[in-house]
UniProtKB/TrEMBL annotation:
Top-level taxon in the UniProt lineage: Bacteria
Entry's Gene Ontology cellular component terms: membrane
Family annotation (InterPro entries): FA_desaturase_dom, Fatty_acid_desaturase
GO biological process, one term: lipid metabolic process
Matches recorded under CDD domains: Delta6-FADS-like
Molecular-function annotations in GO: oxidoreductase activity, acting on paired donors, with oxidation of a pair of donors resulting in the reduction of molecular oxygen to two molecules of water
Organism the protein comes from: Solimonas fluminis
Keyword set, alphabetical order: Membrane, Transmembrane, Transmembrane helix
Sequence intervals crossing the membrane: 57-77, 156-177, 214-235
Limits of the Fatty acid desaturase domain: 66-333
This protein's name: Acyl-CoA desaturase
Length: 370
């Protein structure tokens, strides 16, 4: 029996009370947001800039292996921080209250091949609205992987252990094309002309990123063209692997659940909160882990409060956990090694045919709702 099986269904009254407690926690925390949070995100911006500048400068000394290694690591660190703690969180509108045009959720453009506009649609809207709802949340397997037994098995999934590795290495590219919904083209539900039109902004962003990392900076290095190109390639690979691991650990551990579309019918605020909880997984660790994951080590809190400054998740996590305990709900957390091991198990297990298990219901039968 997994710990998810310990989840008990909540009555309608309990769901309302559950939602009210989480709403109250959000209100108390957001009332504290201010200058301290602004200083924090500006320090992150500065760290991203300085580590990128230092990394690129060291890569120009490509003939010296220690300089190349350190430069690549610093550039990779910069790209991870920009992607996770800066771009992802800013685009959720967590810092819109600052009125800083460089930190506004609707205009920020991040340093990957995918466009921010597409991410705001596929992630901020679809994923966070329909978290783990089958047929609505495209992040369930990203159209490539079968990670839950409720997904219909096809022979294609036999290859998913290999596909998962390739996807991890090229993760930013998968994010870039997600909204294009290539499956619709293959099934005839989207024309090639429509695909070409949708691809134009994506193609422009891809070209810009490729020219920057693999043409402009290598050319500026002169005789060290190849070491700089390779350093950029490795730094991008570092970010791809890290973000893939963090995101998969947050959504696809053994206790994470998916839901049928029927859960959306007359879904209350408390019901929505409960779905976010049941579909999320946290990572235990120290402050450095939280910063490097963009505080998605608190994936539960992020799904509950996506527009709250992410540095506040560690503050609210103990109260969220206590609320879960009061209502008989599993608070899914563990070390990164443990959680990622469960992800690997899902990838391997569900590459083969498997039958859906019996998930704990979210809402108690009407007869029990007193």
């Amino acid at each position: 029996m997994t710990s998810a099986a310990l989840n008990r269904p909540l009555s309608v009254a309990e769901l309302d009370a559950f939602g009210a407690e989480l709403d109250a926690l959000r209100a108390r925390t957001m009332a504290q947001v201010g200058a301290e949070d602004a200083r924090y995100i500006r320090r992150i911006v500065a760290t991203v800039r300085y580590t990128e500048a230092a990394g690129r400068a060291l890569l120009f000394f490509g003939a010296l292996p220690p300089a190349w290694v350190l430069g690549t690591l610093l550039l990779g660190l910069s790209k991870i921080l920009e992607n996770m703690e800066l771009g992802h969180n800013v685009m959720h509108g967590q810092y819109d209250w600052m009125r800083d045009p460089h930190l506004h959720g609707k205009t920020y453009e991040w340093d990957i091949v995918g466009t921010s506009d597409n991410w705001r649609y596929t992630h901020n809207y679809k994923h966070h609205t329909y978290t783990n709802v089958r047929g609505m949340d495209d992040d369930i397997g990203y159209g490539l992987l079968r990670l839950f037994p409720e997904q219909r098995w096809r022979p294609f999934y036999l290859f998913q252990p290999l596909i998962a590795v390739i996807f991890a290495l090229l993760f930013q590219w998968g994010v870039a094309i997600q909204r294009l919904e290539l499956g619709k083209v293959f099934s005839g539900r989207k024309t090639k002309a429509e695909l070409r039109e949708e691809f134009r902004p994506v193609g422009r962003k891809m070209r810009r990123q490729l020219l920057k990392d693999y043409v402009l900076f290598p050319l500026l290095a002169g005789p060290f063209f190849l070491p700089v190109l390779l350093g950029n390639l490795v730094a991008n690979g570092m970010r791809n692997l890290w973000t893939y691991a963090v995101i998969f650990c947050g959504h696809f551990t053994a206790d994470a659940e998916t839901f049928p579309k029927s859960v959306l019918q007359n879904e209350s605020r408390g019901h929505w909160y409960l779905r976010q909880l049941r579909g999320s997984s946290n990572l235990s660790g120290g402050r450095l882990l939280h910063i490097m994951t963009g505080n998605l080590s608190h994936q539960i809190e992020h799904h509950l409060y996506p527009d709250m400054p992410a540095r506040r998740y560690a503050q609210v996590a103990p109260e969220v956990r206590a609320i879960c305990a009061r209502y008989g709900q599993n608070y899914n957390t563990g070390s990164m090694w443990s959680q990622f091991g469960q992800v690997i198990w899902r990838i391997l297990r569900h590459a083969l045919p498997s039958r859906p298990g019996k998930a704990a219901p979210l809402v108690a039968p009407v007869a029990e709702a007193v």
